[in-house]
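Here is one chain, start to finish.
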Amino acid sequence: MIPIVKGHGLGNDYLVLAEWDLPQPLDPPAVRLLCHRHLGVGSDGILLATSRTEPYGLRIFNPDGSEAEKSGNGLRIFAKYLVEHGVATTDAFGIRTAGGDVRAEVRREEGRVVSVAVDMGRATFDAAAIPVLGPPREVVDEPLAVGDRTVRITALSVGNPHCVVFVDRLEESLLHDLGPRLERHPAFPRRTNVQLARVVARDRLEVLVWERGAGPTMASGSSSCAVAAAAVKRGLADRRVAVHLPGGRLDVEVGADFALRLDGPVEEVFEGVLAPDLCRRLGWPHG
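Its structure:
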């Protein structure tokens, strides 16, 4: 029997599995099937626990089978899982990701974890660190040709790559047009997450997200951090901002050194075991 948990942060949903419960390593075909919303369990990605001691190891998979360095909502879902499923014994702890180590802190109500804050590390706008092709520079409000149009982008890394486009009006049609083009633009050798962002006030941003390897999502923690950092860098927002996404609100604090802290609600929606039929399709032993 292979245990599985599903959680979400503002509708951005992930499956949580533990490496020690799996009969064989998790590979891209298995990720794609598990994330498939009709043939599998369905999710925006998979969080794979890789160690039972702090810092708790985490691998993050996109639904296309590729691996992500970091995910703000994924980290918050994972933190709740660690606490509520008996892996972590304290309410504040370290998590190790491919995008660097982070600190997580859970908040409880009546013993139940209702929200999680994560120190997401520092944002960098350095082209080589993101990476973005071209000469050494900070990629801030610079033009980029996308097909027959030119858009102004601010690119940065918060442990994974992001491309922020500030707009006067948020439009789903524009996200579906620019999102896939920017994600796979030749300027981004490792692809990128994409955000359309609107500044409503100095303490309020509205955002639509196109996630690398996933497409449009209801929310994204790392994208929220990226947009907040980009807005501060460009002088458009204060260092504490509420980021409003289709799924709800996340709060981001941008430090003087561009250290990022993300806070918001998180929920689990089910826990159980993978059914024998799905295990057979995965080629995994079951019983």
